[in-house]
Amino acid sequence: MTRVLAVAAVLMGLEAGVSAQASPADVSITSFNPEDATAPISGVEGPGIKIGEGTVLHPVLGLETGYLSNVFYTDGAPTGAGMLRLLAQVGTASLSPERLVSPGGDEGENQGSLQYRASVRASYDFLLSGNDTVTSTGGLGLGALFKGIVNPQGRWSFGFDEDFSRLIRAANFESDTNTNRDVNVLRLTLQYHPDDSTLGAYLYYSNMIDVFERNTQSFADRLENTLGFHPTWKVLPQTTIYGDFSIGLNSGIGSDSQKVNSYPLRTEVGIATLLSIATTLNLHAGYTNGFYSSGPNYSSPVVGAALGYRYSPLGRVLLTYDYLHEDSINANFYRDHVVRLWWQQVVAPLSIMVQPEVHFREYDGITAVQGPATRDDTIFSIIAGVHYNFRNSFAATLDYRFTDVNTNYMYTIGGTTDNPGYVRHEVLLGVRWAL
Asked: How far apart are CA 51 and CA 66, in angstroms?
């Protein structure tokens, strides 16, 4: 029982980080999110290696070194370590619209019947320390992406997005093993977009499989399915009203899973418009209900807003707010107030990105550890990056991530009371080379 509680305590910190529920391949800067070593490396591109008619492979290699201030995500007396990270990616894609232009035709006249992009990527982290427990941390992160659209210029089109990631995370002090997990996300869309109508819509389905690699952590394995409908109405040239209606089925995987079944319902309407040539506004509101089969449940409004301003052709700021409820790996669900500011500026050959954000989060229905069933967190994070492209195929990168998880939650394990909050700095300096 103590062993199960120890592993559960490790999982308690997984969703404390800001990006825990984000897609594993989500990147906040064009080339790399320091929190996700298997994110697509898209900041550099070389001529590639031609392997067939119309097929070119684009390999990218990377090397980074840096420092982690809190390897084990502890709330006090953190253990720091240096890090060496090796990166590799190989990808291919269909020809761009520019290369598909027929002789004498206009750009984009013929985009073909299939547009796709595929990549396989890997990272390996070496922790540099005299502490044997620290050096045993790290390991191999993997990712694979295959996405595309069939009949992109037609009235009807079909889109697909398959994304797999092996995510590595160091154990905290209760466990001597990493909390590694495999996440596969499949998204399918059927889109109706006639040129002669202001009405459009798409039907979508998503499936997420989230599995922890060690048997002692299988109680957190879960499966999420969502089916939704998204109609749009273009009321003005730069203004679109839209709706989104979805129903889901979330459950555990296998007999060891302790995940409570739920059937989340979400319905909302929104508007996306231009306030000026440089200013965008997006507002949405609606209702959501988790319909959990046991334990706490949510029945709540959905609210969100995004205000963007492009102050120059190569500079933009975006401020967003979201009030949301999400399924959780360490509880039934969590409620989040999220405020995020995003800024990017390109001064060729330099690209700068800064993204601070704050989450006011509440977990409900915690059963994995000996502690209260409810937990309140305040999470502050900053992602920042400076990338310098010496040429299109070679770049230097400097990435920084700061996370501060402040919580009132205390749980008991082996007779000891612990706080799962932590403060963590991560800085990485590296190079990328595209072949």
From this structure: 36
- Give the residue among 25, 121, 131, 114 at the shortest CA–CA distance from 72: 131
Whole-number Å distance between alpha carbons of 382 and 342: 10
Q: Which residues pair with 396 in a beta bridge?
A: 388, 431
- Pairing assessment for the beta strands 55-68 and 315-327 based on DSSP bridges: unpaired
Report the mean per-residue pLDDT for the chain.
84
Rounded Cα distance between 11 and 171, Å, is 9
For the stretch 43-61, pLDDT in tens is 677 788 887 766 788 899 9
The amino acid sitting at 329 is I
The full set of domains in the chain, from first to last, is 2-434 (2.40.160)
Tell me what pLDDT residue 29 has: 29
DSSP string, 138-192: EEEEEEEEEEEEESTTSSEEEEEEEEEEEE-----TT-SS---EEEEEEEEEEEE
pLDDT at 42: 52
pLDDT at 2 over 50: no
**At 294, is the secondary structure helix, strand, or coil?**
coil
For residue 398, the tally of other CB atoms under 10 A from its CB is 17
- Higher-pLDDT residue of 262, 13: 262
Three-state DSSP state, 383: strand
